[in-house]
Amino acid sequence: MVFLIQNTQNKDGEAIQIKLDELIGSHQGAHNALLDLEELTEEQLKQIKDRYEKLAEAARQELSRGLKDTKSTEV
Q1: Are the C-beta atoms of residues 69 and 56 closer than 8 Å to each other?
Q2: Considering Cα of 13, then 19, then 22, then 27, what sign does the dihedral take?
Q3: Local structure of residue 65 (DSSP, 8 states)
Q4: Which of 25, 29, 41, 69 has minimal Cβ neighbours within 10 Å of its Cβ?
Q5: Would you say residue 43 has pLDDT above 60?
Q6: φ/ψ (deg, to 5) at 35
Q7: For residue 17, what are the CA distances in angstroms to 2, 11, 12, 26, 45?
Q8: pLDDT of amino acid 44
Q9: 39: Cα within 13 Å, side-chain hemisphere
Q10: CA 7 to chain CA centroid, nearest Å
Q11: Using CA of residue 11, residue 13, residue 16, residue 21, what is the dihedral sign?
Q12: pLDDT of residue 75
């Protein structure tokens, strides 16, 4: 029974990953290098995460100065 549940969860996880990859790949300007993050080492993931945290902090600072952080609608 446990094996069946785990197998179903693994299949669901794979399907979600494929759907996310499709969304990333179909978005103009998306970084295709992010498609297989689960294959990276912990150090590589940390470097990418740190980069995005810096981008987020810069965006929050721009918002606090009244600037937009994106071309999309307000959050």
Answers
A1: no
A2: negative
A3: T
A4: 29
A5: yes
A6: -65, -30
A7: 22, 10, 9, 14, 17
A8: 94
A9: 5
A10: 24
A11: negative
A12: 45
> Measuring CA to CA, which residue among 4, 45, 57 is closest to residue 69?
57
Cα distances (Å, whole numbers) of residue 29 to 23, 24, 59: 12, 9, 18
* Phi-psi region at 50: left, alpha or beta (left = phi > 0; alpha = psi -120 to 50): alpha
Q: What is the reported pTM?
A: 0.62
Helix (H, G, I), strand (E, B) or coil at 54: helix
Cα–Cα dist 34/48, whole Å: 9
For 63, residues 6+ apart whose C-beta sits below 8 A from its C-beta are 69
Give the separation between CA 71 and CA 37, rounded to whole angstroms: 26
Question: Where does the pLDDT of residue 42 fall: very low under 50, low under 70, confident under 90, or very high at 90 and above?
Answer: very high
